[in-house]
Backbone:
DNA sequence: AAAGTAATTAGAAAATCTTCTAAATAGGTT
DNA sequence: AACCTATTTAGAAGATTTTCTAATTACTTT
């Protein structure tokens, strides 16, 4: 079930997590592939992925012993709508 | 001078600060008027306002011994553009 | 100038977040 | 089954954030 707005904004507030989302813009990547872009342990990447997942910003698919993550653009859209309303667009 | 994207996202990550922005949607309000909407001390509200100000999400105008805060929608627009790009809109 | 009102700053406590190491889980391969 | 590879979980350390109380600044009014 969809998590709160609050948690989505929190998920977006960390630079590592935003960079992960940008990486996923092109195509789904495994946790390991994502991790290789950062100078951090896999455990830390896993922690960030879990927050993105709880915020529904990404989906995961398990294939063999890999876990692939994919961007969920519909939640991005929700945040944009909130911002759009704030801006005063009718 | 305009603060980093990172700081703008951080500023948006707190529910109190988002509620302040919504309050300012209608019209500018003084720090005291903003504070009266929350069950928090004026010092705490002042802290949140300083973060919104540093993120350039609000402007302040001093009138008598009041400080009025006003929403700055152009920064909201910047965040929307980032999200729009993430979504994949060309 | 003294007193009052609005708001901010300083400093500290409590809560939350980020990161690590080490251990555990899960699946694939020999 | 034993071993290897990918990923997650647990637990702890360190950093950052949020909030408060008390003190300070700034401007107004008497």
Residues:
């Amino acid at each position: 079930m969809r998590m709160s707005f609050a948690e989505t904004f929190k998920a977006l507030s960390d630079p590592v997590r935003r960079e992960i989302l940008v990486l996923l813009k092109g195509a789904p990547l495994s946790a390991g592939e994502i991790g290789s872009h950062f100078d951090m342990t896999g455990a830390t990447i896993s922690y960030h992925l879990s927050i993105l997942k709880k915020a529904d910003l990404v989906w995961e698919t398990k294939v063999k012993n890999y876990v692939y993550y994919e961007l969920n653009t519909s939640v991005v859209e929700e945040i944009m709508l909130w911002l759009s309303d704030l801006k005063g667009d009718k």
Summary: Helices of chain A lie at 5-12, 15-26, 31-35, 42-54, 73-87. Chain A touches chain B through 21 residues (CB under 8 Å).
